[in-house]
């Protein structure tokens, strides 16, 4: 009889939630191969065809509801190509640039489509799409981004407690803070003024569970002039993988500013965070996929939001001594990793979830079977697969190469050079740990490594940052 992992307990008191959980497990188990021991295969070509169809023919009717998320559809598609190691030809790149530039708002930032109001979320997606397809010079997109207006747009969203509205007349949400910080880092717009108080706000979103929620109660009284409250505000809502990734990535990006924060310094409870993150990985009956919150279902997109959050811990010095048994090509071979993998989560099981349950037979990746694939889940599953395959670490060696090549600003930037340099070095010191990759199914399933914070390849990150910081980037020395 085929091996069947123990189902989740329901306390003999079935509820709608426990029934859905049991149904999900039944479906997931059916996606495990029976008998044969041949490894799962990443259906690269069908995923590429799915991406090409969306980019070239346009998105089919079900995407109508995403009319205000056009930059996201573009970014998910382009970064999907990058993860699958495919580059666009110059004509398609130009089409992308022209399309994206039509979303720039005259008062700064990008909207969800032509003529739409600027919003932090599509601004991140549009700038990342330009990092992938754009270039310097006329018509290349990069120099057509109005950085001055972008900065003013960001400042106009700032709240007295360090948080940001996602758009004018809108709400505060850590997703917006993540998006703002990524754009500010890529475009060399980050200033102490912009992020004053932001780390405190981010820290206040951590809940009793250890993960982060979308926001917290406002930290200021609504009098005029507004005054900051003394005590930390309670988080608003439930710990969730999506917000946790954004908060942790924001916290990481704010590290160069931590010395400037007034006492008492904001703190994140890393121990409860790690505990919560590890609990988000599903059981064997859930094929080791991740869920986004306690007692909810596993979903392929959390492969990135939660799986990827483990990658961020590396930047905060949380991890474990890396001791690899044999850093060699053999890493790609099928092996039992039970006693060789020292990760904080089961990287093998996550890859299996994505490969067995996350791939739609008709191309593209998905939340879980029997759902359809879509652009968002395609990228999140591929990015999660990437972060489970590769171990990205902060490399002291790479940092030193970047320090040697650093050219102080010649007055081109009005920002303090020490901060710019710290941001630049932190962003680009990530490197793949040698011998640290673990690819289920071997080399044929290997996807590109992705920047743990930005979800862009290192090459695209270096390209755009080299331009905006006016720095030469030394080539990566590949050891024999
Ligand atoms: C719950 O949906 C999902 C949310 C409340 C938001 C999730 C946030 C992200 C995925 C982060 C996005 C990041 C950026 C940068 C835009 P649900 O109730 O359908 O799913 P669930 O049952 O899995 O919680
Ligand atoms: Zn999902």
Report on the structure:
The chain is mostly helical and about 475 residues long. It contains 18 helices and 6 strands. It has one domain (about 40-470): Glycosyltransferase. It has helices at about 15-30, 45-55, 70-85, 90-100, 120-135, 145-155, 175-185, 190-195, 200-205, 240-255, 270-280, 300-305, 305-315, 345-360, 375-390, 395-405, 415-430, 460-470; strands at about 215, 220, 225-230, 235, 390-395, 430. Helix 3 (about 70-85) packs parallel to helix 5 and helix 14 runs antiparallel to helix 15 (about 375-390). The protein binds farnesyl diphosphate and zinc ion. Farnesyl diphosphate binds next to helix 7 and helix 10.
SSE inventory with pairings:
Elements: H1 16-30, H2 44-57, H3 70-83, H4 90-101, H5 120-133, H6 147-157, H7 174-186, H8 192-195, H9 198-203, E1 215-216, E2 220-221, E3 227-228, E4 235-236, H10 241-253, H11 270-279, H12 302-305, H13 307-313, H14 347-358, H15 375-389, E5 392-394, H16 396-405, H17 417-428, E6 430-432, H18 458-468
Antiparallel strand pairs: 1-4, 2-3, 5-6
Helix pairs in contact: 2-3, 3-5, 3-15, 4-5, 5-7, 7-10, 10-13, 14-15, 16-17
The structure holds farnesyl diphosphate and zinc ion.
């Amino acid at each position: 009889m085929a091996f069947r992992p123990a189902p989740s307990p329901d306390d003999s008191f079935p509820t709608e939630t426990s029934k859905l959980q049991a149904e999900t497990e039944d479906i997931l188990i059916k996606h495990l191969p029976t008998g044969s021991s041949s490894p799962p295969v990443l259906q690269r070509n069908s995923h590429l065809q799915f991406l090409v169809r969306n980019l070239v023919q346009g998105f089919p009717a079900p995407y109508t509801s995403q009319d205000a998320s056009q930059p996201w559809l573009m970014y998910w598609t382009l970064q999907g190509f990058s993860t699958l190691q495919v580059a666009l030809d110059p004509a398609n790149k130009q089409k992308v640039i022209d399309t994206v530039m039509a979303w720039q708002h005259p008062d700064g930032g990008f909207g969800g489509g032509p003529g739409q109001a600027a919003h932090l979320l599509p601004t991140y997606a549009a700038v990342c799409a330009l990092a992938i397809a754009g270039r310097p010079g006329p018509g290349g997109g990069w120099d057509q981004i109005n950085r001055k207006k972008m900065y003013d747009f960001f400042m106009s969203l700032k709240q007295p407690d360090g948080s940001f509205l996602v758009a004018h007349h809108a709400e505060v949400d850590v997703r917006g803070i993540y998006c703002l910080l990524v754009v500010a880092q890529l475009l060399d717009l980050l200033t102490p003024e912009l992020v004053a108080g932001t780390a405190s706000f981010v820290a206040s979103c951590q809940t009793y569970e250890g993960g982060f929620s979308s926001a917290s109660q406002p930290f200021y009284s609504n009098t005029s002039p507004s005054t900051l409250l003394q005590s930390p505000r309670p988080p608003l809502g439930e710990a969730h993988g999506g917000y946790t990734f954004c908060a942790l990535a924001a916290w990481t990006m704010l590290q160069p500013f931590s010395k400037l924060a007034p006492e008492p310094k904001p703190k994140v409870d890393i121990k409860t965070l790690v505990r919560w993150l590890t609990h988000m990985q599903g059981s064997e009956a859930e094929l080791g996929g991740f869920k986004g919150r306690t007692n909810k279902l596993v979903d392929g997109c959390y492969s990135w939001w939660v799986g990827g959050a483990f990658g961020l811990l590396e930047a905060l010095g949380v991890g474990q001594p890396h001791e690899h048994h044999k850093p060699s090509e053999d890493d790609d071979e099928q092996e039992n990793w039970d006693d060789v993998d020292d990760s904080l989560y089961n990287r093998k099981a996550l890859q299996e979830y994505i490969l067995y349950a996350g791939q739609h037979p008709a191309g593209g990746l998905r939340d879980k079977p029997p759902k359809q694939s879509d652009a968002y889940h395609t990228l999140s599953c591929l990015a999660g697969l990437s972060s489970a395959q590769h171990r990205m670490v902060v490399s002291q060696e790479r940092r030193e190469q970047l320090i040697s090549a650093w050219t102080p600003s010649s007055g081109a930037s009005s920002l303090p050079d020490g901060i710019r340099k710290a941001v630049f070095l932190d962003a680009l010191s990530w490197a793949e740990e040698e011998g640290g990759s673990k690819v289920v199914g071997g080399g044929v399933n290997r996807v590109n490594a992705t920047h743990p914070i930005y979800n862009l390849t290192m090459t695209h990150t270096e390209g755009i940052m080299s331009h905006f910081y006016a720095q030469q980037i030394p080539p990566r020395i590949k050891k024999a």
